[in-house]
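Renewal narrative, Specific Aim 1. Our central claim is that a sequence can be written position by position from structural information alone. The example that follows is taken directly from our test logs and has not been curated for this report. It begins with the structure tokens describing the chain, in the order in which they were read.
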């Protein structure tokens, strides 16, 4: 089954457009996991990250469609961290969760091909379902990723309009009467035009931040065949009203990411007294249920 159709099926089966971001950070881990690190070694932290993320996966499986491990936090730990990333991805797949690896990779020629094969290929040591990709080396740099989508029924999410305040420096720049983000959106639509699945969506998704709801609504119309990954919900300030404009008329076509607001929910004021560090998994479960309810309205 094509990636876009698998994502549509996962959203329908769970009734959720929530994507849980897996961003393990040393200082914010629940106390029991931090205390398990005795010698401050990369291997110990990697084990703590693996336990943290796999327990989150166990909590949210069946409640959300997908998870998004952020490669940077694993890369910080070196080789041990990258082994942990692989373990987390495989655990998520066994739990029937689709995996969006957030690596924002790209390059040109054989290097782009290596990135695509490394994360998405048939013999990939990670075996991710999809990968975030930067478009700013041009169309030819995206082509190897699109070809890998064709070979393995994988997906990619191309950065179009990101949630950070500084993104507009390049993305909003006008050239030939169009902004850069509008031109990237056109390219995404071109890639998907001959690759649409039964869901009406293609394998080339996009990243559009909840912090720019007007542009999110604009891009939903401009990219009718593209799944949109929407970061910026919760801790970054995006609310339900901001993100729901990214959905199509059937309530499909977008998944909304939340990382800190869910995975570190035990530290949020409204959950700290009831759950705290000792019951951090219960806080994750309740925060996930809360987000699902907000988005379903």
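The sequence written for that structure reads:
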């Amino acid at each position: 089954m094509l990636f876009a159709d698998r994502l549509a099926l996962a959203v329908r089966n769970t009734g959720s457009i929530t994507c849980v971001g897996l961003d393990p950070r040393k200082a914010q881990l629940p106390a029991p996991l931090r205390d398990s690190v005795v010698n401050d070694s990369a291997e110990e932290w990697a084990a703590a990250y693996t336990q943290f993320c796999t327990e989150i996966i166990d909590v949210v499986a069946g409640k959300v469609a997908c998870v998004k491990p952020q490669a940077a936090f694993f890369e910080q730990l070196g080789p041990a961290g990258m082994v942990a990333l692989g373990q987390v991805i495989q655990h998520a797949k066994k739990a029937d969760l689709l995996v969006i690896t957030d690596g924002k990779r790209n390059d040109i020629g054989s290097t782009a091909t290596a990135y695509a094969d490394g994360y998405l290929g048939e013999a990939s040591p990670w075996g991710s379902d999809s990968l975030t990709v930067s478009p700013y080396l041009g169309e030819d740099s995206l082509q190897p990723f699109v070809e890998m989508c064709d070979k393995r029924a994988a997906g990619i999410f191309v950065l179009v309009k990101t949630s950070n305040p500084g993104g507009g420096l390049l993305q909003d720049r006008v050239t030939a009467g169009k902004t850069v983000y509008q031109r990237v959106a056109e390219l995404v639509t071109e890639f998907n035009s001959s690759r649409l699945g039964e869901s009406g969506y293609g394998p080339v998704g996009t990243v559009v931040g909840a912090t720019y709801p007007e542009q999110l609504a604009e891009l939903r119309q401009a990219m009718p065949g593209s799944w949109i990954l929407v970061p910026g919900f919760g801790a970054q300030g995006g609310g339900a009203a901001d993100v729901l404009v990214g959905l199509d008329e059937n309530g499909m076509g977008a998944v909304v990411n939340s990382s800190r607001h869910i995975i570190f929910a035990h530290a949020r004021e409204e959950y700290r007294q009831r759950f705290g560090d000792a019951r951090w998994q219960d806080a994750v479960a309740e925060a996930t249920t809360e987000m699902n309810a907000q988005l379903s309205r």
